[in-house]
Amino acid sequence: CSANLHSRNNIYMASCSISITFATPLLRFHLQILFELRSLILDVHLLGLEQFEVMLGLDDHKNVVLFLCRGVINSRHLKHIFTGGNMALDFIFFPNTNIPMSLALPYPQFWTLCGNTLTPRRGVFGKTGDLQTILCVACTRDQITYSGTLSGDVYMWKGLNLTRTIQAAHSAIFTMYACEEGFATGGRDGCIRLWDREFKGISKVDLTGSAHGYANLSVRSVCWHGERIVVGTQDGEIFELVVRDREQPVLLTQGHGEGELWALAVHPAKAIAVTGSDDRSARLWNLNEHTLLSRCAAEQGVRAAAFSPDGAHLALGMRDGSLSVLRVRDMSEVVHVWERHAAIHLLRFSPDGGYLAAGSLEGPVDVYSVAQRYKKVGDCGGNIGGAIAYLDWSLDSSFLQTEDSVGQRCMYHMPYGKLVTDKEEIDASPWASWSCPRGAEVAGVLPRYGPPRQLMSLDASVTGGVLAVGDGLGFIRLYRFPTFQKGSRFRRYIGHSAPVTAVHWSHDCAWLLSIGGTDHALFQWRFIPEGLHPTESDTLADSNSEESSSDQSEMAELDSDIEQDMQNNVMRQVYKEDLQRLQKQGKEKGQTFASQRCERPPNDSLRLHFVHGYRGSDCRNNLFYTQTGEVVYHVAAVGVVYNRHTHSQRFYLGHDDDILCLALHPVKDYAATGQVGRDAEVHIWDTETLRPLSILRGEHHHGVCALAFSADGKRLVSVGANNENLVVMWEWKRGEKIASARGHRDKIFFVQVNPHNADRLLTVGVKHIRFWQVTGGGLTWRRGEFGGVARCDTMLCAVYGRSDDLSYSGAASGDVYVWRGVALLRTIKAHDGPIFSLHALEKGFVTGGKDGMVGLWDDSFERCLKTYAIKRSALAPGSKGLLLEDNPSVRAVTLGHGHILVGTRNGEILEVEKSGPMTLLVQGHMQGEVWGLSAHPHLPVCATVSEDRTLRVWDLSENHCMLAVRKLKKGGRCCSFSPDGKSLAVGLCDGSFLVVNANTLEDVLSFQHRREHITDVKFSPGKWFFSHYYPFPPN
């Protein structure tokens, strides 16, 4: 049973064999507790093979959670205990009982489990011992408890009462283990003591005096089983002792101690690597024997390392800005240089061995001459925008390329550091190594869509044709080298729990080495070339994760609409809920103007009357009929209930930021809407009264992109719009979370709950479909199996069929995929282009796609009964506006009250008669920002212009419709009517502007004499002049 360190913590249970062996004595995993995150799991104990599992938190509340476990998969939250902020350091069950005991600062607590209730009682010290911090605990079968204290004493407890004190067992007792033979304890003094079952001393082993011991060695973990004892220390060593020969401990594995691990280098000709850490040590490792060759103590923390090309010298960069060069044969110092005051975190010898380049956090790269006893001969300081993050030498040692922390890549002539400006000279330079994430050779590490990943380190093996990348999430990714196409295919490997600060290939490309900054671990990965079959042992220890291949790589170009959906980012620097905090900070800083008299607000007020617009450009399936025949949709931060008979609107105004998704309750006229926000909210509200029924928050960050009700309406599923794409199932009336799990690393477009089983649901998105099952307090998933029926495609929408295991999904190719369970049965060609909407009817289905077609299908999805083309010629006379174009992309489709309701990407809502005619109900602008607005000087008319490259004129009377529209070559930023209302001036984003006829929108004149966008334009009160404003470019 294991637990992880994360803002959302998980406990994992798995069955394992009885015997456990180390894959290699070289340090692989070393745990460290970090207190900077919201919470984490400190300890887990199981009662034999039984039911109870305890989780101790390290969050601010230090809570204890008890789970009832029924097998590996099924578990139930049994009890949540609030400790009042006291940290619980350990938690045990008495053998063969359900009675737990915990150690909480500064006293022990004994718990009694009765039903679902845990009742604590404090231990009574009496006069037998002093009240002090207790660090560990062990117990016997007769319910006698022994605890280790900070002072080094052992306390013996009978029931709740302290009955005996064994003094000065250690200087401080960090660990205690009970077994059939007796007890084993370990402490700060570096000693192991063995005790019999009556807790009488048997023997003592001092690890500090052993062959591998050292001063200040501290024992943190001990296990005694039969003839063997295993000991773990604070600095990452694991010792094994044989009871009969306990004075000769064997060192199994070791690693770095406290601080961050940043320095890694490999020998140019031998299977040797060096690591350096903030623990002020540099260590040489034998990669074949997995042993430590030597350890060198340093005066400062080591942040960088590099071997000379002949392997004779080892350069170390220190935290204080100094540079030390050692002889590898005996680790003696050759020279010590101090040129900088910030940490040296990059070191590279030139391929010919003549120079050493050192990059520091100050920015410039210093160049040292090896022949002149590491005298500084140049520096690369020009045109650097931040600290140097990467550097590489050319193969002939003539050039050095760098990349700084702001992403600026530069090249310099060596050794004097003159900046290279000739592009042909840059392109013609072959490189001895490649660690910079920018450049044509490594373009594939950047995603094709979306923001770039947080890359920490790169290393290319030219001979092996592979590129290793370590990222800020602790993943190792393996690419082909060179990799020219963005979003190239890769394999992903998991192991590190911290950002991967360095990766390096060994000299013969047999091993890949990686280090984690705060997990203190050096990982040694075996490289298996293409075509070479791994051995049986390699297969058993396969490190390849299940999601190793990029779902976006090496695939056909995505449809332009889907690409824009993927690039839509709801993350913002400031959210609306931040405004009150920022205003309060402004007042605290004295930024108010006391001299200005605060006036009372006006008695007049505003009431929202009508909204022109529908968010269809980047949303889908967000349009529904209510039971009374009204239409529910959203635009901006407003939930709209539209009466199609009276052409009037009512509004839900509970949101304070953009609404991204909408779902309708299957039984009652309730709507659920999810918005953008730092702590994104989901509102469930009544479409009749427009009052909120429940507000769900606390789970999603940045936004909620998809919602779905269960068939009975009691549950609601939401999907987050951040990097985790968290899937959460709610009991929305009570506002309680039922289960949650990370959805997918790629964008999720849609979620649907199984109408036959509320514990099942599916999600679809970029190159994936997942089928979910509620399990205990979590969600487990299975990936859709495409088999040989069809290729894996991006899924945009989905519905369930008439049976529990039958489902349908709409793909980017225009096919409908039919699923039985998780297996793909067949595909049906439904549209020419992506299918954005799919809706299940009582008998059949209705689909909508990018081709501007709506299709009605039979209940087996085998035959299309009828199709409807969205065209301007099909508009009924009563339409409230004009279609922008024929066959607009259909984003939402539903059927009810004898009509088909259609929402388009162009922001239009249409109602289609089954016989064919269609009525335009509402429309608005598309994607991009709307900046230009001008009211007609005499008529109830206004004009708007947007970055969607359209100029529109609106009727503000009771008709509430669009009177005219014109497509522009560029997006617009401003507009203004002339004083007589006959002309309309429009400022565009490219610095040009137009004057058009206000009635026909035809050009009167146009010209351009600026390069920046025109932000405002105004006519003078007379007839012949107007002025415009544009932002001046920075000097």
What is the gist of this entry?
This protein is an all-beta fold.
**Can you tell me the residue ranges where pLDDT is under 50 for at least 5 consecutive residues?**
11-52, 70-80, 536-557
Shape, per Cα inertia axes: globular
Individual helix count = 4
Residue-averaged pLDDT: 82
Determine the fraction of residues in helical runs and give it as a percent range: under 10%
Distance between the termini: 61 Å
Radius of gyration: 34 Å
Describe the protein in words.
This protein has four helices and 81 strands. The protein is an all-beta fold. Strand 25 (281-286) and strand 26 (291-297) form a beta hairpin. Residues 11-52, 70-80 and 536-557 have low confidence and may be disordered.
Please name the defining characteristics of this protein:
single chain, 1035 residues, mainly beta, 6-stranded antiparallel sheet, 4-stranded antiparallel sheet, 4 helices, 47% strand, globular, Beta-prop_EML-like_2nd, WD40_repeat_CS, WD repeat, Beta-prop_EML_1st
Q: Topology of this structure?
A:
Elements (H helix, E strand, L loop, with lengths): L1 E2 L7 E2 L28 E6 L5 E6 L6 E7 L3 E8 L6 E6 L6 E5 L2 E8 L2 E6 L11 E6 L4 E6 L4 E5 L2 E6 L6 E6 L4 E5 L3 E5 L5 E6 L12 E7 L2 E6 L4 E5 L7 E4 L7 E6 L5 E6 L3 E6 L4 E7 L4 E6 L5 E6 L3 E6 L5 E6 L5 E6 L5 E6 L4 E5 L5 E6 L7 E6 L5 E6 L4 E5 L4 E2 L3 H5 L27 E7 L4 E6 L4 E5 L10 E3 L6 E6 L5 E6 L5 E5 L9 H5 L19 H8 L11 H10 L35 E2 L5 E5 L2 E6 L4 E5 L6 E6 L5 E17 L5 E18 L5 E6 L5 E6 L4 E7 L5 E6 L6 E6 L2 E8 L2 E6 L11 E6 L5 E6 L3 E6 L2 E7 L5 E7 L2 E6 L3 E5 L6 E6 L20 E7 L2 E6 L3 E6 L4 E6 L6 E6 L5 E6 L3 E6 L5 E7 L4 E6 ...
